[in-house]
Design goal:
alpha/beta, fumarase, globular, 60s Ribosomal Protein L30, Chain: A
Length: 506
């Protein structure tokens, strides 16, 4: 029998969420470092260097790895002998109080991104509550917690299928992963749940992502059951797709594939797949009545000796004077360093702007020959100009792109990962350009922002339109003015180079 103090659980949840906002798990850091050493694609290697540099900077500065500080997911195993002598709250309320305190910590305020009334008003809860909590009542005297913060970029790429019992799980995964695009910010992990029912498969896929990266050890000792055989096969075949870091084409797309399974109905084969992004954030702790969780931080020497610096070949661009003729000279895959004034705007701002245009109203900001950055930054603390400000998934803005290019004079866009066909077509027709910043490098990117002010739609909070003054902000030409996309050409090139999976044309 053990007695768990209410405050100990609240403090442990709050401390854990602060901890994972700025510390990658040690196993992820080391696996990514080895991937960096192996990587032969220059674009992918540069992206991994940015992710590793950002990771170390966040550990030193205690600021978020990613601007999307995620939705909180908890797996809680409560021992049947646990007592709560001083509890005035339910366990769920304790966990949510811990979330509330973590996200409103003034020294490292995290971005609130949870919306209530999801199919209606979509009103921000302001403190990232409620968490999504899964309970299990187990024998014992302890409370065991796995806690994660999952960003929308990876969560939104979740896939589920109800296969026939005779269907191939491997075939489905290999067909599906390329359809996910790169908005989930590879290199990361895949969590796969097999069996049970539809909702059980999803929960298992999520829980599998909490496990330690150990695929190389598994390959070395050999598989001992079918699930381990699947892990190895999927790890090798997913990487053979050549998607690479940030979808730029390369040798490493996943650092591990995790599988949990469960008995299922004879007529069913439910399979769920959830990716973890480059901002992998989770931690495990146990409470036994002796006080709050003691979390062991990685040491700085645990990070590989990788420090990103701009390539000598990178082209510096003055955003204040750039012309359409300049843009036409930029090549797919080229590295640019942006300088000058950069506007921002995400989903809500785009929706409001297109509504205004459709009603014949003038926009509050002139976009003529300007660039827009798809970002919702973290609030600044202390002497910061802006908090971590990495790009958001650009495909969400695809449906607005043609109108923005046609009606505002917009010259280019900056975002995360690929653009879809409707956006690429609009970019080509208007001789515009799309530039990609590295997802998973939010703090590094924010250091290029030297001034920030809200210029429109202040009521939208982090979705407002800001104007940034940037100095040497690193980006890659992802879609050039002729409509060539590196997210289409890069993976095909590297899939062909790897040569284990036939390249499908078209």
């Amino acid at each position: 029998m053990s007695t768990i103090r209410q405050q100990d659980l609240i403090d442990s949840i709050a401390d854990s969420l602060q901890f994972i906002s700025y510390y990658h798990p040690k196993d992820y850091i080391q696996a990514l470092g080895k991937a960096y050493e192996r990587e032969e694609s220059l674009a992918a290697k540069d992206a991994i260097a940015q992710i590793l540099t950002n990771s170390r900077m966040c550990a030193e500065g205690h600021r978020p790895i990613c601007q999307d500080t995620g939705i909180v997911t908890c797996f809680v195993r409560v021992g049947m002998n646990v007592r709560w002598d001083d509890a005035s709250m339910s366990v769920t309320d304790m966990i949510n109080e811990g979330v509330r305190r973590a996200y409103n910590n003034p020294d490292n305020k995290l971005r609130a991104s949870i919306l209530s009334d999801p199919a209606g008003a979509r009103k921000n809860t302001k403190d990232n509550t409620p968490a999504v909590i899964h309970y299990e009542i187990v024998p014992g005297d302890t409370i065991e917690v796995d806690i994660a913060a999952k960003g929308g970029g990876s969560e939104n790429k979740t896939k589920f299928v109800m296969l026939n019992p005779s269907d191939s799980i491997v075939d489905w995964v290999i067909k599906t992963v390329p359809q996910m695009g790169a908005g989930w910010c590879p290199p990361g992990m895949l969590g796969i749940g097999i069996g049970g029912t539809a909702e059980k498969a999803m929960v298992m896929a999520k829980e599998a992502l909490m496990e330690e990266i150990d695929i190389q050890e598994l390959i070395a000792r050999g598989a001992q059951n079918r699930a381990e055989e699947l892990r190895i096969e999927l790890y090798e075949k997913v990487n053979a797709l050549g998607i690479g870091a940030q979808g730029l084409g390369g040798l490493t797309t996943v650092l591990d594939v995790k599988i949990k399974d469960c008995p299922t109905h004879a007529a069913s084969l439910p399979v769920a797949m959830i990716p973890n992004c480059a901002a992998t954030r989770h931690v495990h702790f146990i409470l036994d009545g002796s006080g709050p969780a003691q979390l062991e931080a990685p040491r700085l020497e645990d990070w590989p000796a990788v420090t990103w610096t701009p390539s000598a070949q990178a082209r510096r661009v003055d955003l204040n004077s750039v012309t359409r003729e300049d843009v036409a000279s930029w090549k797919p895959g080229e590295t640019l360093l942006l300088n000058g004034k950069l506007l921002t705007g995400r989903d809500a701002a785009h929706k409001r702007m297109t509504d205004m245009l459709n009603q014949g109203e003038a926009l509050p900001v002139d976009f003529t020959n300007r660039f827009i950055y798809y970002v919702g930054p973290v609030d600044p603390v202390r002497d910061e100009v802006v908090g971590p400000a990495g790009p958001t998934t650009a495909t969400r803005m695809d449906k607005f792109t043609r109108q923005m290019l046609a009606d505002t004079g917009l010259l280019g866009m900056v975002g995360k990962s690929e653009r879809g066909p409707i956006a690429i077509s609009a970019i080509k027709d208007h001789k515009a350009v799309y530039l990609m910043a590295v997802g998973g490098a939010a703090y590094l990117v924010s250091k290029a922002i030297k001034a920030s002010r809200v210029v429109a739609f202040a009521d939208l909070g982090m979705e407002a339109i800001y104007e940034f003054d940037v100095v040497d902000m690193p980006v890659t030409v992802a879609v050039d003015s002729g409509g060539t996309s590196v997210h289409e050409t890069g993976p095909k090139e590297w899939q062909a180079r790897i040569g284990k999976i036939p390249v499908v044309q078209g």
